[in-house]
Write a structure and sequence with these properties.
heterodimer; A: mainly beta; 5-stranded antiparallel β-sheet; about 45% strand; B: about 280 residues; 4-stranded antiparallel β-sheet; globular
Chain lengths: ~260, ~280
């Protein structure tokens, strides 16, 4: 029999409150509002699809906005109708001063398995997408959410050196912007990025930075400068903060347009 | 009828050709992992890898196959372009492209199971998008297929932007053109949860099914310059569908793309069967 079935609800709740486990996670993604790119995030009332009988007429979500230094600017609770969804535009949804670069966080507050209402639903993370649009031209990008805010140190995995699986053909590319988000809430770290020649595997350029909790660091690599010598490049990260805490790449082409993807 | 082998899941990468959207594909086939160390530390014993290219037409017929298409040395990559393939494509049709990695089981740890594909506009090479995703969605219980094929919420449409959903439907146990008896059920919902479209599609096994969202929207729904958000939900069994959404501006040709994740990645019910049954009841 599973351990969770043996533990009485009160004890499980105690563990949850003290150790941050068995709780719907706070899911993270990059927010851009720098005058060149605007962002919106989609949230769906997934609980109502999984459990229509219990009719989560207005599932609640906690949404938060942080600046690039990791300071919480505002948090609020929103409700979604049954089978409903919402495209959240932070500049409309929040009353705070909107940062140019920030971190959007969403957490489902749907009843979890501590609730008597539904013991089957279990944990349910908020699975949203980020839609980036240029305000200058018609560039668009779509990226699924990144890691969850991690309130405690990793027990098994420490931040590790990592190389993106993308091999980028530099033809027609002028620059690559790399955004790394620290999703660790109690752990500061030394990190940085590398621009690697994908043929020779030699480092072309690199930087280093110190990341406080919930920090966002942006690195810009001038690809136009190196593309005659390096036809293919890839991006390395010195300290990845979690398996899905991959950096975001905004790739700009000769015509000034961008596409973006998780690395 | 089904694929359940972990080997098949790990060894295949699937995507649509993108031809009906005037796109060409460039697949980057890598033989290294995200945790590969610097070149000076690479273990010289790590092996080179070959890969097969198999392409299916719209009705699930094998259109092209080349085993051991190329060899990728360890810690290196191969750039496979649609334009380099020696076959006569009909560019008005979509094809299912299956890259099959020939790797020993013990070598899996040294190379990623994620595949990467770039789509470039045929006439404007500066317009590009790229997606990186696991070969086939992993399901925790190998005996079952998830009925919940898609609970996506990454569809934006406007006057100029359409959302094209690609369902990649591979079943290696089937050799001849066969329609999957289990239809794919699809709904489009607005933010209020109202159903704007509900329908079902019978799909050929080993083919691409492309769902062009704007085609299915009610005529009275007026779209303007600002992209409107819609939710799309799909249900099916008997197949595992890697799914991705490709947003494309039909005027400027700008594109965005992202893969879907099955609910397994974000929902952790105490009893998956009850949750699945509830979901089906809603359809």
């Amino acid at each position: 029999m599973k351990l969770k079935k043996l533990l009485p609800n009160k004890l499980r709740k105690l563990i949850h409150e003290n150790f941050g486990v068995n709780q719907n996670s706070k899911i993270v993604q990059l927010f851009l509002n720098d005058g060149k790119i605007k962002t919106e995030f989609s949230i769906t009332n997934a609980a109502s699809f999984f459990d229509p009988e219990n009719a989560y007429e207005s599932s609640k979500y906690n949404i938060e906005l942080y600046d690039c230094n990791g300071s919480l600017l505002e948090s609020k609770i929103i409700s979604l109708p049954k089978f409903g969804s919402k495209a959240i535009k932070p500049e409309i949804e929040f009353k705070c001063a909107i940062p140019k670069i920030g971190m959007f966080v969403a957490q489902s507050l749907s009843p979890n398995n501590f609730s008597n209402k539904n013991k089957n639903l279990g944990l349910l993370n908020c699975h949203f997408y980020a839609f980036y649009q240029s305000v200058i031209d018609k560039s668009i990008a779509l990226i699924h959410p990144q890691h969850f805010l991690t309130p405690h140190r990793y027990n098994k995995i420490k931040p590790y050196y990592w190389v993106s699986q993308y091999v980028i053909n530099t033809k027609n590319i002028t620059r690559v912007e790399v955004y790394q988000l620290s999703v660790l809430e109690n752990w500061e770290l030394e990190s940085g990025t590398e621009l690697i020649d994908a043929k020779s595997n030699q480092i072309i350029d690199e930087n280093s930075y110190f990341m406080k909790v919930r920090n966002i660091k942006k690195t810009v690599y001038d690809i136009k400068k190196i593309r005659d010598k390096s036809a293919y490049v890839k991006i390395g990260v010195k300290s990845l903060c979690g398996d899905n805490a991959k950096p975001l790449l905004f790739i700009y082409s000769d015509d000034g347009n961008f596409t973006a993807t998780h690395a | 009828m089904s694929i359940t082998s972990k080997e098949i899941i790990r060894n295949n990468f699937l995507f649509g050709s993108g031809f009906t959207l005037d796109l060409e594909f460039v697949c980057m086939i890598r033989n290294f992992s995200g945790q590969t160390e610097h070149s000076e530390n690479v273990n010289k014993l790590k092996k080179a890898m070959t890969f097969d290219v198999i392409i299916y037409d719209e009705k699930g017929n094998k259109f092209y196959e080349k085993k051991d298409y190329a060899t990728v040395p360890y810690h290196s990559f191969y750039e496979l372009k649609s334009s380099d393939l020696e076959c006569e494509f009909d560019y008005s049709k979509e094809y299912l492209v299956n890259i099959r990695y020939n790797k020993d089981k013990k070598d899996h740890e040294t190379s990623s199971r994620e595949g990467a594909v770039f789509f470039n506009h045929r006439n404007d090479k500066t317009k590009t998008c790229a997606v990186l995703y696991d070969a086939l969605p992993h399901i925790p219980n190998k005996k079952d297929y998830s009925r919940i094929a898609l609970l996506a919420h990454k569809c934006w449409v406007s006057e100029e932007i359409d959302c094209h959903l690609y369902f990649c439907n591979l079943n290696t146990s089937i050799e001849s053109s066969t329609i999957n008896p289990d239809p794919l059920l699809i709904k489009i919902l607005n933010e209020a949860g109202d159903v704007l479209y509900s329908g079902q599609e019978k799909i050929y096994l080993n083919s691409i099914f492309k769902f062009d969202v704007k085609k299915y929207l009610p005529k009275e729904l007026k779209l303007d310059q600002d992209a409107a958000f819609l939710n799309i939900v799909a249900s099916a069994s008997n197949s595992q569908y890697p799914i991705y959404s490709l947003l494309k501006n039909s005027v400027s040709h700008d594109m965005a793309i992202e893969h879907s994740l099955p609910p397994y990645y974000y929902a952790f019910p105490s009893d998956i069967k009850i949750i699945r049954d509830n979901f089906i009841k809603n359809f």
